[in-house]
Amino acid sequence: MIDVLFADDHEMVRIGVSAYLSAQPDINVSAEADDGGEAVRLALELRPDIILMDLVMKEMDGIEATKQIIEQWPEAKIIVVTSFLDDEKVYPALEAGAVSYMLKTSKASEIAKAIRKTYEGQSILEPEVTSKIMNRMREKPEANLHNQLTDREMEILLLVAQGKSNQGIADELFIALKTVKVHISNILEKLEVHDRTQAVIYAFEHNLV
């Protein structure tokens, strides 16, 4: 079972989405929060597999809550579920540590799919979000940081870009899961990015895939 914490200040949204998700055979919404502060407390106390995070909430917003959770628990997997696509929401949320970004206009089945993919180690972004990030990166000076990657690191980066999980990469390359994690850590450091999502965007931006 994938254990989920759902933070949203709209009770009807929580009730509807939680009911659908908990009806899935592999997902359980074990806790809910109606503001960012409560989301931080429950996340650090319960350590759920996935956190669904609304961005606009009373007292503490989702961006600040995401930032505080990641600072104290870097392994947390946070999926933003919001109505907003404006720059001042998208970039701060991803920079704070969210690994996936979904819109509330998405079907409940799509959110369930995003939960499964994120749990497996992938990053799920709305097409509009990917487009925004790529356009922003085009405005930056060209930097071929990938030239620093070893052949093995480049191979793993391309598999990450294909949506492979860490375990999937380990199985395909016949190497240990721990080795994959070390390589990915080195890739992020060399590309000067913070997470897998930014590494994938880098790969697409530089025509590596």
UniProtKB/TrEMBL annotation:
* Domain HTH luxR-type: from-to ranges: 142-207
4-aspartylphosphate: which positions carry it? D54
* Domain (Response regulatory) ranges: 3-119
Indicate where this protein is primarily found. Answer: cytoplasm
GO terms under cellular component: cytoplasm
What are the entry keywords?
DNA-binding, Phosphoprotein, Transcription, Transcription regulation
Q: Which InterPro entries match?
A: CheY-like_superfamily, NreC/VraR/RcsB-like_REC, Sig_transdc_resp-reg_C-effctor, Sig_transdc_resp-reg_receiver, Tscrpt_reg_LuxR_C, WalR-like
Give the record's GO biological process terms: phosphorelay signal transduction system; regulation of DNA-templated transcription
Subcellular location, record wording: Cytoplasm
Name one matching Pfam family: Response_reg
Gene Ontology molecular functions: DNA binding
User: What is the protein's given name?
Assistant: DNA-binding response regulator
Per the UniProt record, the source organism is Lentibacillus kapialis
